[in-house]
Amino acid sequence: MAHLTLKDINKIYPNGFHAVHDFNLEIERGEFIVFVGPSGCGKSTTLRMIAGLENISKGDFLIEGKRANELGPRERGVAMVFQSYALYPQMSVYDNLAFGLTLQGVDEDVIDEKVRKTAKILGLTDYLDRMPRALSGGQRQRVAVGRAIIRKVEIFLMDEPLSNLDAKQRVTMRSEITQIHRETGATTIYVTHDQTEAMTMADRIVVMKDGYVQQIGTPRELYFDPVNVFVAGFIGEPPMNFLRGIVENGALKFGEVEFDLSKKLQERTAEYEGKEIIFGFRPEGIQLGEKENAYTVPCSVELTEMLGDNTNVYVDIADKKAILKVDPHDTPEIDTEITFSIPYTEVYLFDGETEKRI
Q1: Which phi and psi angles does 222 have, rounded to 5°?
Q2: 357 near 348, Cβ under 8 Å?
Q3: pLDDT single digits (tens) 64-89
Q4: Choices 1.10.3470.10, 3.40.470.10, 3.60.10.10, 2.40.50.140: CATH for 241-351
Q5: Is the pLDDT of residue 165 over 80?
Q6: What's the pLDDT at 144?
């Protein structure tokens, strides 16, 4: 039986707003699950229902097969890390870490041992006597994480814990949280709007939009096998390119550009003759110049972004915009005409109306 089960979970507020629709998920013990999606998609609301901070309007939340809808946060055995560090400003780092154990009446010697062990894991040993105001954002977030893991609970819930940190601190804390997860073995549910965090940290990702689950899968599954346009465009950086075209006589037409569909793609689009489909390809899936077993695309270069290990090239394809990801040594000049190729194996096709994968 799954460690945690969310069965047909719904959240409907008194004003009638339906924030979460029929959320279903089974989470195994020790999994690292990430809820990802744009602001307002329902991911934090779902996390708060798991934590017991929001009532579940409809559906069942089970812990080890037992219904937990009516249990309070403490009874559920969860520890939560918020976006705001929620530290006690009048307490030292040591006292912030020790506070939960003190409330539980744990012996002082045991508290001291656990605080110092937790501080060592998080690199906070030299800061135990400092007040939160004397710490950097990354250090404060470590204290918040430490306050959660010191309790030795089986379920960690994290609601956008890195959003207040700068880019370098986020990278560091991502690896630290992942390492802590491996050491504790606790089931972790992590909420973020940052797909990079989701891809680098998760065992499985739950992609949400407008309160609905769009797809659940491993990072690899979501990247290589997205079920619809939203998931395909949300996972990956830069996002997937999409060109809307009409299928005519075994070809796909985008204004002045025409692709003769390969035999394999013709089989997938046979029922779309005269209809619109969406042709997708990832910026990193292309090759400059003309290649075999690939679509050749002429375009004009509008802008380039040199990022060090690669260059993003913004191009115009028959008045449609796209981004190409190329080797920085092959960066084309702005306002020039170039040709690139999309291997047949790098093409994604979607229904023009439903936006589901064909």
Answers
A1: -70, -35
A2: yes
A3: 999 999 999 888 988 888 777 778 89
A4: 2.40.50.140
A5: no
A6: 87
